[in-house]
Amino acid sequence: MGARALDILSLLVQRAGELVSKEDLTKFVWPDTIVSEGNLKVNVAILRRALSEGSPGVAHIATNPGRGYRFVMPVRVELAAMPGSSHAGPASFFNNLPEPHHTIGRTDEIGFLAAQLQNNRCVTIVGAGGAGKTTVALAVAHQVKFRYENGVCFVDLSTVGAPQYVAAAIATALGTQLRARDLLSGVIAALRDRQLLLVLDNCEHLSFAVASAAAQILETARGVSILATSLEPLRTAKEQVYRLSPLGVPNHQEGITASEALKFPAIELFVTRAAQRSDYVFADADVPTVVAICQRLDGNALAVELAAGKMTGSDPARLLTMLEQRFRVLSCGPRDAPVRQQTLFATLDWSYRLLSDSEAAVLRLLSVFVGYFSQDDAIALSEGVDLAISDTVDGLAQLVAKSLVATEYRDAAVRYRLLESTRAYAAERLVAEAEEDRALRCYALLVVARFERAESEWFWRTGKDWLFEHAGRIDDLRKAISWAFGPTGDREIGVRLTTAAIPLWDELSSMEEARARVEYALAALQEMGDSALVLKMKLATARAWSMNHSQQLVPETEAAWLDCVRFAVEAQSTEYQLRGLWGFAVYLMYTGRHHRAIAQLERFRTIASEQSEDSAAPDGLRLLANGEIYVGRLGSALQRLIALADRYDHIAQRSRISRFQVDRYVAIRGTLALALWLTGAPARAAHVAQEAVDGALAIGHIASHSTSLALWILPVTVWSGKYAQAAAFQATLDENNRLENMEIWGPVSRFFHGAIEVAQGKGGGIAEMREALSVLVEGNFVGRTPMYRSMLSEALLSAGEVRDAELSLKEARAGAVAQGEQWCLPEIMRVQGLIDLHNHNPVAAERSLTDALFEARQMGALALELRAALTLGDKWIAEGRSQEALNLLSPLVERFDKDPDYADLIKARSLLDRLRQTQSRMKEACWMGPESRE
């Protein structure tokens, strides 16, 4: 068979019984070549064919579909003397390896490195301080030591203080007494005829001398292989570099159990060490805290071990607090560890002192970044502190090579990041060198320039691309704002930062954060005296939106929106006039002033038309249709919404959310769902409402998602009688409110929770509906409350609380009239008919129900017409007027679309079937005559 097939067999047998991934096999067999997966499959097929010749029908290699291969036959290892060797036999076997540590989460790396040593005589494990390079190297050496006839020699270079002593350290480790002037020549002579693995540990401070010695040993002693550990590569010609990654940590803290969390190596290491030292027992409740600890430590093995050692007498929450306050808590490691590995800061200090002055200066400066940064960011920052560009570029490259700066390739670009422990250490050095104030000022100016550019880009870049580029910098934004408004900061920079950040907060649904920051910036703006009108306009608009999202829609909100419009007119900003009018219209609808809201939207349309702002027009039309639904113009609203939905038929056509706070695609479909349900298309309404919810989830915008749940899919699902689905939507809305404090939807969610409880026959629902309605009214969020009151009234009537039902319905009618909410009048009249029937007043009941039918027909509200008809039909059947009931319901049912799950249709069809069966039996009885009847 070919050499490639033999290489595959070599790695599979080396890791017999283990799953070897396709990626590992490809890297091992074709280390410097990009090949297709087909090459691997062909060579595995050749290998299987060759192996089956000696034992037909026996499977040697198992396939794990989509993942890799496993060698499944037993493997026996035999030691054989190297032909022609003068050092054969047990006496020549050398082994001074320290006892291996119990490794956690490194099985794949150890196996891969062991395989690499078969084809590469020089492998260097490179990684950050504390990553576990020595531990992995020892594990690899122990695993492969019997491959080497003369064993393994471990050389600890951490205690060697000068380059000239490298050869002496190797000779001492080998136990060889050398008297030659050139010690390295003596070492090479001693190694020339040996087959041995040389492990060179902690090479970073002697890298040039170690690289030179390694190159000469590899050239002359052909039976020797070298496994080295270092912060940076040795840069020898034959070196294979392996970068040791941090231990794996979950990306998020919520929603995973303790057993699931333990599948991540960093969590397993922490829990194992904590249990060994303090009898700690890991529970589900501790998962978020332990994950946060390991995230904060970036999965650094030493840091995790040291943190776990601090669990004695502490719980994870207390340890996390300690870590957030100061990293020096990570001390007192194992007593047998080198001094520099007994504290994380000592390890970092060791690495720092190996840097040149310019490299150290760059590292200190980079500590101001919270997360990822680009080379351009580093250059811009260094220019502000008079650091040469060449020093910054070279220093950054060296810091990456020395594992002090991590890199990531994303979208064909490199981005950089300091591990949290390194950043904390470098920040302390920045303070010690009295460089912090200047660095932070330059940093804040860099961040404000980035976000002011982002604000301008927001108008023309696609939402997805814009958010992808800028969302990851929010931690830098927060840090820069905190500095700007701090004791040594610059409040003008803080105001500029806050203003430029508004689009990002809106896109991320970070309403609580935006509200607090904007209020602070507006106060600072007042203190600063005469300031830019544009900044005031933007901040005032953001503040008004935050007031719109509050649970208390206070009268000051109206003044805030009028100020926005006034500032926009003074600043001659068409954009912010439109935003102000739109936001004001939303506020008016929330507070039940729908006709006035429609007037504002007509003004919006006029300005958008005169100023050719075509991009804003669809949002104005959608909100106008929403207002038309409330005032009973269902036909006009439906026509607008269908046209808009046809035009914006894909979530990829994402609007600028910061402009009008909710995604256009989502809002159009949500409002259309309400219109479709009212006009008798419940199946289409459910489908379109689900599209709105799915669209909001697809873009990850919580505000749009919560709005689609609270205003559209939850009510439509409840009114359709699909209570199990409605309960799931209500629970999701509650979860959203917990994740991002969106106060406005809290009472709505509780109201529908109560309504679902009532519908399912559970106790407590009426009280919850009452309490939620009370909160809505107290907060002046009275839009739709007439409909909600009619729902409460019907629930009270069903519970026998007639007096309270009458009072609730009276308030519903008064609210509907005062607010111009024509859309819910048929329901109010229908419930009045039910109350009249309960009070034994059939004449008044018939009048109320007939009025409900007329009102619903006038609007085209087929769903409400059917509800009124069902109640009136029940009354007529009870009075012996079955034919009238049949004549009323039959044509109504035919006008609905086919929805097998719509509760009112199910009831109507069942009622019609009974009426027709009764009618049929009566006709049959009449046809057979009186004798047959006897």
How would you describe this protein?
This protein is mainly alpha-helical. It has 43 helices and eleven strands. Strand 2 and strand 3 form a beta hairpin.
Q: What is the topological layout?
A:
Layout (H helix, E strand, L loop, with lengths): L2 H12 L5 E2 H8 L7 H16 L8 E4 L3 E4 L22 E2 L11 H13 L2 E5 L6 H12 L6 E6 L9 H9 L8 H9 L4 E6 L5 H14 L3 E7 L8 E5 L14 H4 L3 H14 L8 H10 L4 H9 L6 H10 L18 H9 L4 H10 L8 H10 L4 H13 L4 E5 L2 E5 L2 H13 L3 H22 L5 H8 L3 H11 L6 H17 L3 H17 L5 H16 L7 H15 L3 H17 L3 H17 L6 H14 L3 H14 L9 H4 L3 H15 L3 H18 L2 H18 L3 H17 L6 H14 L5 H14 L6 H14 L3 H18 L5 H14 L3 H18 L2 H17 L3 H13 L8 H31 L1
Parallel strand pairs: 4-6, 5-8, 5-9, 6-7, 7-8
Antiparallel strand pairs: 1-3, 2-3, 10-11
Helix pairs in contact: 1-3, 4-5, 6-7, 7-8, 10-12, 11-13, 15-17, 15-18, 16-17, 16-19, 19-21, 19-22, 21-22, 22-23, 22-24, 23-24, 24-25, 24-26, 25-26, 26-27, 27-28, 28-29, 28-31, 29-31, 31-32, 31-33, 32-33, 33-34, 33-35, 34-35, 35-36, 35-37, 36-37, 37-38, 37-39, 38-39, 39-40, 39-41, 40-41, 41-42, ...
